[in-house]
């Protein structure tokens, strides 16, 4: 068993809004959130006051403890305020990918039993259609403005009393992001107030933040990585978060220059752009002090090229998953120079890890031996919503969460992730479940069978690749027909990027797809 070198942290027995904004009054007029496109700024005092007013307005609207509110928005300075207002009103927030189709959104609404939606006007048509398909949604609110819908801006005028909700941080669900786990279709991950708040405390010794830090939030807040590293963690400690709605390289670089960004938390495709794109040379990035990459594997040579080009300490990595609130490992900022190349870091405070044999899961392995990574700690999720069997398959009777990742630990405690047991595809950090795409492919009348695996493209990104068996009556089913069938029905990041037509899908006697055999054909 491997244990963290850091002292254990006591569980944070606070609602997430208190854990993050409990010191907002002390930070007062310091800028908390800045719109990176137009410069609109909210101070800590404003974020504190605004989220309390919105909580009161939501309570007056009918939001009660245990209700689920779907937050469906790209990154804006309104997103954190809406999130904390909902949790203060007692609601659970299920975060929704802004590129989700109406059908995908409706599935999440139905599964989570969400009764409220907060969205933005450009996404309103999708939200309306999703609500219509799912049923049960009482009201759709918008962060900006739209005819026929109440706006959060208007709700700020509400002067009623702030709700006093009795929240049990250990049991009550603060966030309900959707994850595919190690396989299967997306499931609601129940993360309690205590789990999320305690994970912030676990991460802080390794990646401290403070009022002098300026963090650029370009990765999405709806994803647990962005929610933690770009929203909760910096706002908890008085840092300034500069918010961008999406990644556009020129806008991103200009924001670093204009706002004197000190820290970046990114995914590998952004590291690639910083390392190789010619536009980088046109901007002053000298304010940067560190870059941390997570959400997908980062090539060690690419990391080196990026740090050398920017004149920075080596690029650090972090590791975790939605089911772990999300962090378990990170390269400490104080140790960027001496961390070995390719490591995803060391255990954060209060976390235990085992590496177990792939052939004999009951056998623990020592340093240097690759096996499945198991994690135990206060950040392990409560479970999957409404799926006790899936929860039991993920977390064993002793509390160990089986990550589905394969890794090894060196003699100094650095973890290296080398492969995956799980079938999940990570496209630019976003989860793509093969089973979801396989089910969709089989709805095409010309497809008799299908399997999906992840393969790597020329840019080093893992992409979905489909193996398709034509139906005997399909005639000459073309690759483009298959690609369009999927593209019209899923968010862009889930699209099939390659097709191989085969005679049969290899399966075990149990019916399980033998994906390793398929990888041999790519």
Features:
single chain; 522 residues; alpha/beta; Rossmann fold; GMP Synthetase, Chain A, domain 3; 2 domains; nine-stranded mixed sheet; five-stranded antiparallel sheet; 29% helix; globular
SSE map:
Blueprint lengths: L1 E2 L12 H6 L2 H4 L3 E5 L5 E3 H18 L6 E5 L5 H11 L3 E5 L5 H11 L3 E4 L4 H11 L4 E4 L9 H4 L17 E3 L2 E2 L7 E6 H11 L10 E4 L6 H13 L3 E4 L5 H11 L3 E4 L1 H9 L13 E4 L6 H11 L5 E5 L6 E4 L15 E2 L4 E5 L14 E6 L6 E2 L3 H7 L6 E9 L5 E6 L4 E3 L2 E3 L1 H8 L5 E10 L5 E9 L8 H9 L10 E4 L13 H5 L3
Parallel strand pairs: 2-12, 4-5, 4-6, 6-7, 11-12, 11-13, 13-14, 14-15, 26-27
Antiparallel strand pairs: 1-18, 2-3, 8-10, 9-10, 10-20, 15-16, 16-17, 18-19, 19-21, 21-22, 23-24, 25-26
Question: How is this structure best described in words?
Answer:
The structure is a single chain. With 522 residues, this protein is an alpha/beta fold. Helix 5 (102-112) crosses helix 6 and helix 11 (268-276) packs across helix 12. It is globular. It contains 16 helices and 27 strands. Strand 13 (263-266), helix 11 (268-276) and strand 14 (290-293) form a beta-alpha-beta unit. The strands form six sheets. A nine-stranded mixed sheet has the order 3-2-12-11-13-14-15-16-17, sandwiched between helices. Helices cover 29% and strands 24% of the residues. The chain has two domains: 2-404, Rossmann fold; 425-519, ANL, C-terminal domain (GMP Synthetase, Chain A, domain 3, 2-Layer Sandwich). The mean pLDDT is 94.
């Amino acid at each position: 068993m491997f244990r963290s070198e850091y002292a254990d942290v006591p569980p944070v027995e606070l609602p997430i809004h208190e854990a993050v904004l409990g010191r907002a009054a002390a930070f007062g007029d310091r800028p908390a959130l800045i719109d990176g496109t137009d410069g609109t700024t909210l101070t800590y005092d404003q974020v504190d006051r605004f989220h309390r007013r919105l909580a009161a307005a939501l309570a007056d609207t009918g939001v009660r403890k245990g209700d689920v509110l779907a937050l469906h928005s790209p990154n804006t300075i309104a997103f954190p305020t809406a999130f904390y207002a909902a949790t203060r009103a007692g609601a659970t927030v299920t975060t929704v990918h802004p590129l989700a189709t109406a059908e995908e959104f409706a599935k999440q609404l139905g599964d989570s039993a969400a009764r409220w939606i907060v969205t933005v006007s450009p996404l309103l048509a999708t939200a309306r259609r999703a609500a219509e398909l799912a049923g049960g949604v009482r009201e759709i609110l918008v962060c900006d403005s739209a005819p026929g819908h109440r706006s959060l801006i208007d709700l700020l005028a509400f002067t009623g009393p702030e709700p006093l909700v009795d929240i049990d941080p250990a049991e009550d669900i603060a966030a309900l992001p959707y994850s595919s786990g190690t396989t299967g279709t997306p499931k609601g991950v129940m993360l309690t107030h205590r789990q999320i708040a305690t994970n912030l405390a676990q991460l802080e010794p390794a990646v401290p933040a403070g009022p002098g830090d300026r963090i650029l939030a370009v990765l999405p807040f709806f994803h647990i990585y962005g929610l933690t590293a770009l929203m909760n963690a910096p706002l908890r400690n008085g840092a300034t978060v500069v918010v961008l709605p999406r990644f556009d390289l020129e806008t991103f670089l200009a924001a670093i220059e204009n706002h004197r960004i000190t820290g970046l938390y990114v995914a590998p495709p952004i590291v690639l752009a910083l390392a190789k794109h010619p536009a980088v040379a046109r901007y002053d990035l000298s304010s940067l002090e560190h870059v941390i990459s997570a959400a997908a594997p980062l090539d060690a040579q690419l990391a080196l090229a990026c740090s050398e080009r920017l004149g920075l300490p080596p690029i650090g990595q972090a590791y975790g998953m939605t089911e772990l609130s999300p962090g378990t490992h990170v390269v400490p900022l104080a140790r960027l120079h001496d961390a070995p190349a390719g490591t995803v870091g060391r255990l954060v405070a209060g976390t235990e890890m085992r590496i177990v044999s792939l052939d004999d899961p009951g056998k623990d392995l020592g340093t240097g031996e690759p096996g499945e990574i198991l994690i135990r700690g206060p950040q392990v999720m409560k479970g999957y919503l409404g799926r006790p069997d899936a929860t039991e398959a993920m977390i064993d009777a002793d509390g160990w969460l089986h990550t589905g990742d394969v890794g090894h630990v060196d003699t100094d405690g650095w973890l290296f992730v080398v492969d995956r047991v799980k079938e999940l595809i990570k496209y630019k950090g976003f989860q793509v479940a093969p089973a979801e795409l396989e089910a969709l492919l089989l709805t095409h009348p010309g497809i008799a069978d299908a399997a999906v695996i992840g393969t790597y493209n020329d840019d080093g990104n893992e992409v979905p690749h489909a193996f398709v068996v034509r139906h005997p009556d399909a005639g000459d089913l073309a690759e483009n027909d298959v690609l369009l069938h999927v593209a019209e029905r899923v968010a862009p990041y889930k699209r099939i990027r390659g097709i191989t037509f085969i005679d049969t899908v290899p399966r075990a006697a149990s019916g399980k797809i033998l994906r390793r055999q398929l990888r041999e054909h790519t």
